[in-house]
Structure to design on (718 residues):
């Protein structure tokens, strides 16, 4: 394209274009707020790349396997089967909960989004060491790509959940469906906050990724996925302990999801003011996200060397 | 065909990179796992942390259209400086300002994923280098043509040969239309034909007013391409400016430890009484130690001692260029027609190299005394002395042949 033009014309045009540009400062220590705004802007500029990275991760995960991404469904479906049979029927948890399978799967899907985002995010910088060391990119793009991948899996599981509710004839068509929105927002915001912060920490302390796996296990059982909230209430009573248990953002999101997609259950199955609690947790989540991004910015200057 | 202007006259544009008092410190801690930190409560880590200053107070200004070379020892901070300019590493002190689209070629095919096809990788790599999807699509055919891998573009990259891989990666990088290109020794990969292709493209870039910042170990590349050279040592800028001067300073820095180690091995290593006492180079009309214009007689005088007992020996000299190439070698036998026999204890042998048509550069003289019958080396004095040759026009290689050019119009 430019070979048709005289090189010195090209050169002069380039010089005049550059002369009109302002200087951008790299490596400036700026205030945390301005830093976050800049990070968001840069990630937005690279949104096409973000999409390509998500696609790359998804393709790479199931490369050369015959079932392909179906494997990402087999795990939650197997978990569902196990919990339904063992916890539900052998241990009898299903007795107080109708449509137990839907109940579990709603919780599993919600938790899966959080868990995939955090675990994927934690390893994202280390996993993309090649790029981090050799190219200038806003590094937040890597935990965000993990979120992208997690959302993709989440969407598929959600589809299955809705098909299942349709199959048993209890499709959740009511205003309660609205609870899904704050739930998803909660999971995204908190998942991203942890994902970004842990991604940075994992670069220097590689133990972090193993700790995260253990913590995810704990968090799974700390949310009413395979048992009901009212069972916890029955054990702890209505005191501080219940409040602490309930106000865990993941718990709130799981409860929100159940309220949205699980038709069974009375109002007593859920804590009071669920929407309000979710709102507060969301605001706190935004603050956590802001803090995580500031931490990330501060640590990211040395990523290239530590990897 | 593009005729490049003589380097001194290459037009320069506005400032594109401004490095102000940049210092970079790397903290190397010994404890990098949680267990180690917990066990000593982080104290051992803090006590044993080493501060390594990769860059110390570097200030530079680079103008559009210039080709800047960064040279120095391994560990002098060249790659770190390049990464700071590219925004990949953040300075501990000071700052960098830049404008224009910048592409860092620190590794060819950064981001190439083995399981994606060549086509998918082109789009991914182009996005990484800052191109939008439309821009990549419009250049896709050019990239394909430059890479020359044909239908393999639709196969997964893991099946590519290393040559194809490198060609595709370079094709993408070169079409990313940067205003500033940062190159870290990647031109050292690939075969000769490919390197030639790279260099041609770089020259095209220079004419188009793009700025290139290049880290290299090859003084040849520096001489050919750069019009501004920065010499770094242990993180500090030792010299910035004229390429020839910078290369000289660098050579001096490299020779110092070598001369020091040479002196420690010299005279004691002789096997017999025959010794090369020393050598010196002179040229008529040139004061000792000054540069010798190419084409003049060069007289290499070798002082030897202890050869009274020996018979049938020759003295051989080699002129070695800085790249280790032997420009010229001769021996006294070849010139005189016969070896020496039964001679006084000390004397000098003067080799007069008539009208020595050497290329510009520094030459070292290696001297050897060799037994004419057994070819055993009686004494060796590698790099016994050095001299510099200068030519009116730039040269490459080891000879300088006066050339005249005649242009005739056809038809």
């Amino acid at each position: 394209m430019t070979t048709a033009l005289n090189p010195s014309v090209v050169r002069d045009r380039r010089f005049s274009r550059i002369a009109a540009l302002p200087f951008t400062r790299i490596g400036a220590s700026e205030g945390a707020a301005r830093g976050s705004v800049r990070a968001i802007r840069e990630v937005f500029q690279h949104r096409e790349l973000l999409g390509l990275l998500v696609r790359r991760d998804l393709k790479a995960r199931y490369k050369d396997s015959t079932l392909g991404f179906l494997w990402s469904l087999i795990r939650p479906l197997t978990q569902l089967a196990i919990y339904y049979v063992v916890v539900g029927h052998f241990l009898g948890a299903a007795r107080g909960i109708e449509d137990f399978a839907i109940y579990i799967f709603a919780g599993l899907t919600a938790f899966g989004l959080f868990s995939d985002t955090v675990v994927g995010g934690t390893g994202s910088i280390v996993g993309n060491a090649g790029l981090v060391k050799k190219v200038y990119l806003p590094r937040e793009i890597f935990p965000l790509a993990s979120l992208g991948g997690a959302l993709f899996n989440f969407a598929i599981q959600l589809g299955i959940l809705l098909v299942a509710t349709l199959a048993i004839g209890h499709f959740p068509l009511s205003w309660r469906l609205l609870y899904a929105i704050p739930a998803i927002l909660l999971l995204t915001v908190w998942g991203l906050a942890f994902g970004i912060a842990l991604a940075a920490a994992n670069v220097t302390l590689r133990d972090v990724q193993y700790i995260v796996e253990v913590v995810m296990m704990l968090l799974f059982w700390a949310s009413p996925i395979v048992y009901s909230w009212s069972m916890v209430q029955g054990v702890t009573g209505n005191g501080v302990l219940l409040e602490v248990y309930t106000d865990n953002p993941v718990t709130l999101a799981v409860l929100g999801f159940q309220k949205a997609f699980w038709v069974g259950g009375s109002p007593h199955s859920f804590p009071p003011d669920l929407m309000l609690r979710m709102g507060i947790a969301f605001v706190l989540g935004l603050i956590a996200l802001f803090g995580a991004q500031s931490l990330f910015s501060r640590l990211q200057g040395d990523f290239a060397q530590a990897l | 065909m593009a005729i490049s202007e003589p380097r001194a006259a290459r037009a320069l544009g506005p400032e594109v990179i401004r490095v102000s008092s940049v210092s970079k410190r790397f903290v190397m801690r010994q404890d990098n796992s949680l267990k180690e930190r917990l066990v000593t409560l982080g104290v051992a880590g803090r006590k044993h942390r080493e501060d390594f200053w990769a860059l110390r107070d570097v200030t530079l200004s680079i103008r559009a259209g210039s080709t800047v070379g960064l040279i120095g020892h391994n560990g002098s901070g060249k790659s770190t400086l390049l990464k700071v300019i590219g925004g990949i590493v953040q300075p501990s002190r000071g700052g960098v300002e830049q404008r224009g689209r910048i592409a860092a070629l620190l590794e060819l095919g950064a981001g190439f994923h083995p399981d994606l096809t060549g086509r998918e990788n082109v789009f991914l790599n182009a996005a990484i280098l800052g191109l939008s999807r439309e821009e990549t699509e419009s250049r896709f055919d050019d990239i394909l043509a430059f890479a020359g891998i044909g239908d393999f573009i639709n196969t997964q990259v893991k099946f590519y040969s290393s040559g194809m891989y490198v060609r595709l990666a370079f094709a993408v990088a070169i079409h990313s239309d940067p205003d500033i290109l940062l190159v870290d020794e990647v031109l050292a990969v690939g075969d000769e034909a490919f390197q030639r292709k790279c260099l041609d493209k770089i020259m095209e870039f220079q004419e188009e007013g793009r700025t290139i910042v290049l880290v290299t170990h090859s003084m040849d590349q520096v001489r050919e391409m750069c019009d501004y050279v920065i010499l770094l040592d242990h993180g500090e800028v030792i010299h910035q400016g004229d390429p020839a001067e910078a290369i000289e300073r660098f050579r001096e820095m490299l020779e110092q430890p070598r001369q020091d180690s040479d002196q420690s091995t010299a005279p004691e290593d002789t096997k017999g009484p025959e010794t090369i006492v020393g050598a010196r180079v002179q040229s008529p009309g040139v004061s000792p130690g000054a540069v010798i214009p190419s084409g003049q007689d060069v007289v290499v005088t070798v002082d030897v001692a202890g050869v009274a007992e020996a018979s049938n020996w020759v003295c051989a000299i080699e002129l070695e260029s800085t790249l280790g190439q032997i420009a010229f070698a001769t021996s006294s036998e070849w010139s005189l027609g016969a070896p020496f026999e039964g001679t006084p204890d000390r004397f000098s042998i003067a080799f007069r190299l008539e009208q020595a048509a050497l290329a510009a550069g520094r030459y070292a003289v290696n001297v050897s005394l060799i037994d004419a019958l057994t070819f055993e080396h009686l004494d060796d004095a590698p790099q016994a002395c050095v001299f510099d040759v200068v030519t009116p026009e730039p040269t490459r290689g080891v000879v300088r042949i006066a050339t005249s050019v005649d242009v005739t119009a056809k038809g």
User: Anything to note?
Assistant: DSSP finds ten helices and 18 strands in chain B. The CA atoms of residues 101 and 179 of chain B lie 5 Å apart. The longest helix of chain B spans residues 243-265.
